[in-house]
Amino acid sequence: MLMDRDEVVGDALCGGFLSWRSAERLGVVGLHPRELGGHAVTSLALIAGEREATGPLPAPGYGLSRRALDGALRARAVADGAKLVIDRARAVRPGMVEGEARDRPAETIFFATGKHDVRGEARPREAKDPALGLRVRLPANQRLQEMLHGRIELHLFDGGYAGIVLQEDGTANVCLALRKSLLAEAGGNPRALLDRLADEYSLFGERMASAPADLAVDSVGSVPYGWIARDTAPGIYRLGDQAAVIPSLAGEGMAIAMDSGEAAARAWLDGEDAATFQRRFAARALRPVRTAQLVWSLAERTSGARLLTALTASAPVLARAAMALTRI
Ligand SMILES: Cc1cc2nc3c(=O)[nH]c(=O)nc-3n(C[C@H](O)[C@H](O)[C@H](O)COP(=O)(O)OP(=O)(O)OC[C@H]3O[C@@H](n4cnc5c(N)ncnc54)[C@H](O)[C@@H]3O)c2cc1C
């Protein structure tokens, strides 16, 4: 049984960048991002102030909206025999998912509510100034398409970053992870914050120039970057963001979701209990998550961002090593 709260697959807040590893994993279940219309991405551009450094990705990644990806995955699961149930889980405990419509007893639960916590299984939020996610979609525009063709851009700001990549329909997905205090400084108004960043960082401003006045801004609060589940309750296999939350600038969250799903399925088939699976997955997630945290802590400081762009330009081998070390 596949239970999801949403009848219609939405466009989850996400950078919309599928890493080469995520693309590989999708291939295993017979889905290819190119066939889903994904925009092939072959290079990474790091932009800090006026400085820009570009380097090749180890293999092509893809710009693909979550609506397209999640829709294809759901359809695939249903075609393969999963029974889709639309209900919102209010609480999860061993042997039981409490849904809004009704309770659903389940011997095994693969728990994957992503950014959203559920009673009984909430992740601790300890950061003093937590990260929040913002996302806007810029309409398809020829100038923007020329600027962004074949690349993913990471614009590094004091207190966060924006990832920009073209999606399958030619729109540009602009997704930001920022410290909450920046939003507070902008009076709690996400559009005012985007306008401020566009004024302050001219290359980001160039990309945002085509933003319409009524631009919709999606947001998600308090993302527990760096959190890793080391244990779990009996029969509850935690997957994806419920297993490990890698700082999003690594572009590896979806690979962690797919990898943990596959590993949990194998563990269950082999009769491995949930706690053992969780410990083993935590050990595997440690290196990519900690490396991404280190990069994120550098990237969100002006001096660190300059250092990262300088290193990417002068020693591309280091950028490639960081890309490799942040893969699950
Ligand atoms: C700002 C930002 C940018 C990011 N950019 C990227 C990127 O470019 N590339 C990348 O690989 N990763 C990125 N990530 C990370 C990525 O979005 C997540 O790691 C990934 O989506 C986790 O997958 P998941 O399956 O665990 O959860 P999700 O993708 O969040 O899916 C959760 C599912 O559970 C359902 N659900 C939620 N609550 C309930 C409930 N109570 N009951 C029933 N169903 C429920 C939802 O409808 C959804 O279908 C980004 C994250 C952030 C915050």
- Cofactors and ligands: flavin-adenine dinucleotide
- Give the total of beta strands: 15
Strand residue percentage: 25-35%
Ends distance = 27 Å
Estimated radius of gyration = 20 Å
Give the quaternary arrangement of the chains.
single chain
Low-confidence stretches: none
The shape, in one word, is globular
Main beta sheet: strand number and arrangement?
8 strands, mixed
State the strand order across the main sheet. 2-4-3-11-12-13-10-14
Task: Find the structural class using helix and strand composition.
Answer: alpha+beta
Secondary-structure element order, as H and E? EEHEEHEEEEEEHEEEHHHEEHHHH
- What's the total helix number? 10
Helix content: 25-40%
Mean pLDDT: 95
Q: Any overview of this molecule?
A:
It is a single chain. Helix content is 37%, strand content 26%. Strands 2-4-3-11-12-13-10-14 form an 8-stranded mixed sheet. The chain has a 3-stranded antiparallel sheet with strand order 6-7-8, with no helix packed on it. The radius of gyration is 20 Å and the shape is globular. The protein binds flavin-adenine dinucleotide (FAD). The site of flavin-adenine dinucleotide has 33 residues, from strand 1, strand 13, strand 14 and helix 7.
Brief sketch in words of this structure:
This protein has helices spanning 20-28, 66-79, 142-148, 180-185, 190-200, 202-208, 253-269, 274-299, 302-314, 316-325; strands at residues 2-4, 17-18, 39-48, 51-63, 84-86, 89-93, 96-99, 103-105, 109-111, 131-138, 151-157, 160-166, 172-179, 218-223, 236-238. It contains ten helices and 15 strands. Flavin-adenine dinucleotide binds next to strand 1, strand 13, strand 14 and helix 7.
